[in-house]
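Good morning C.,

I know you're traveling, so I'll keep this short. The sequence:
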Amino acid sequence: MTSPSPELAALLADAERIPSFVLDWTGEDEPGDIARFAQQRATVLGLAEFVWAPAQQEAATATAARGDAVPRLLVAVNEALGTVGGALSQVETGADHYELLVTRLTDAEALRALTVDGQRIVPVAPAADAPVRERLVTVVCPTCGAMNMWQLPVPGPDMDDGDTCSSCDRAFFTPDGDALDGVTVEVDELT
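The tokens, ready to paste straight into the viewer:
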């Protein structure tokens, strides 16, 4: 592991202070949101301005299906950011959104060695060429009303008694994966 810069070392003492950008899995609110966030953070970090043009945005998203545009944009922005010594990472929240962080490329390895509140910080990964089939499992907790979602590969693991409400910890499933009484499960196939 490389040693973090003095600036990052100061933030690592309180990692929750590193500014992040949260983005829904379906895409940007406005085209270029990810690149604008990355450029703002790069400027604060003292890095040069990287090139991001509408043509790059279009190339990354032109043939993307719903939900595929964000991973493609993350890779493209990370590559552009890398040309000026920056790196884009994401916090593995387990939720249906992306939480993004920008650091100097030299600090990325140290940052990615962190676990913050049980969440790992990981590099932006290229989307696979072959589409991955996934399903979205949604349960609205009958006890507290919280919406709980899991995005799982197909084929993949079934739900079990370890899958509980993120708010009140109510169990939803038996060890065999059957829904408990009063629990309504909605499964949507994603492509």
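Safe travels,
E.
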